[in-house]
Specification:
By secondary structure, the protein is α/β, with parallel strands linked by helices. The protein has 7 helices and 6 strands, in the order ββαβααβαβααβα. The radius of gyration is 15 Å and the shape is globular.
Length: 175
Amino acid sequence: MESNKREAVSLIYLVGMPGAGKSYWARELSRTYAMPLMDMDEYLEQQEGNTIAAIFEQHGEAAFREKERNVLALIATDNPNAIIACGGGTPCYFDNMDLMLQTGTVIYLHVSIETLIDHLQHEAHMRPMLAGKKDVQAFLADLLKERAPFYERAHHILNADKISITNFTEILHHV
């Protein structure tokens, strides 16, 4: 576990690749620490009345990223205490990572490409970015290479292949 220390905060942002377990761990943390849970993708779908895939298809990625940025700003200002599961690309656009670093504790769930493929193999139809990709492994490897510099700015980096609630407990006791 790597750590970049910061002052105490009450927002916990989970970032990482699609399939890294952000939503799963956000639910576990919410239950364990009795904190509200905000899943950015679910919140955005509720606000838009449409799925992420449909938003991508109907409006394009640029419009989706703007909507995502607006949701992040809303969550960051309206929720003084919450676990936030971010979309995989959230930290990589606009000044989103800066906003998260300033308003909460950011935890990057780093995961191997093999684990991502295992987690995503039955979800390709639900993940717009995987639609029509013939070599998912190469695509994910390239995407991780592109996004890693953003993710690695997080306050804490956890190896999601070996993660446990204890890892989060250690982090939360030191913020």
